[in-house]
Design a protein that fits this description.
Layout: E1 2-6, E2 9-14, H1 26-30, H2 36-48, E3 83-92, E4 103-107, E5 112-116, E6 126-129, E7 132-143, E8 159-163, E9 169-173, E10 179-186, E11 195-204
Antiparallel strand pairs: 1-2, 3-11, 4-5, 4-6, 6-7, 7-8, 7-9, 9-10, 10-11
Length: 212
């Protein structure tokens, strides 16, 4: 079997013998050593989109050098981890009630802050409103588990808001479909404005929920 690294994943480029999980690719079939009749069937199946898999059987069946039996498929390579780690601050400038609503939000894909002057809908991936944490994509309060101890964000359970407290970890579903983990380092007193809170984060940019 010959593989090539394309776009971060290993992809099959050539295969000799039975096409046990091989594909209906005429190019791979031509170089597989299969008999002409089987190769022709593969080309017809590929052209017609039948979903058949000629040449996938064990034994000799028109193959050269076939040994029989089935070979399990090679699992797809996981997407390479693209975790960004950093810190950010969020400032609340006014009380969070119209017409005085004026707070900051953070977007992980651009690693930049936005100024939000209307309560809803939430415009940023993560914002602090008085003692609350809010997200346009949803978040899960994981508790005081430690940022380094979380290796995977939850698949479900995301809500619009959660109460904020120092030391708590939040899994955040970002607006672009990626995931982040955020730890509250310092939650400022919102009664003395403007007030600035501090957060630490990990952002997985490859679209998975894995933070290894």
């Amino acid at each position: 079997m010959l593989f090539a690294l394309e776009e971060g994943s290993m992809r099959l480029r050539n295969l000799r013998g039975d096409l046990v999980y091989a594909t209906l690719s005429p190019e791979i079939a031509d170089s597989s050593g299969l008999g002409e009749k089987v190769i022709e069937k593969i080309k017809i199946a590929a052209r017609d989109g039948t979903g058949d898999q000629p040449g996938a059987g064990g034994g000799t069946g028109g193959t050269t050098g076939g040994t029989g039996g089935a070979t399990p498929p090679v699992p797809a390579s996981p997407a390479a981890s693209q975790v960004t780690i950093g810190n950010f601050t969020l400032t609340q400038y006014k009380l969070p009630h119209p017409p005085n609503f004026d707070i900051e939000g953070f977007n992980f894909s651009t690693r930049s802050k936005t100024r939000e002057t209307s309560p809803f809908p939430v415009q940023s991936d993560f914002r602090r409103r008085e003692g609350w944490i809010e997200s346009r994509g949803g978040l899960v309060d994981l508790g005081p588990v430690g940022l380094e101890n979380v290796v995977e964000a939850p698949a479900s359970g995301y809500k619009d808001a959660a109460s904020g407290a120092p030391g708590r970890i939040y899994a955040v579903r970002c607006g672009d479909g990626t995931y982040a983990l955020v730890e509250t380092m310092f939650m400022a007193d919102s009664n003395n404005l403007p007030s600035t809170s501090t957060f630490r984060y990990k952002h997985q940019r490859n679209g998975t929920r894995i933070f290894k």
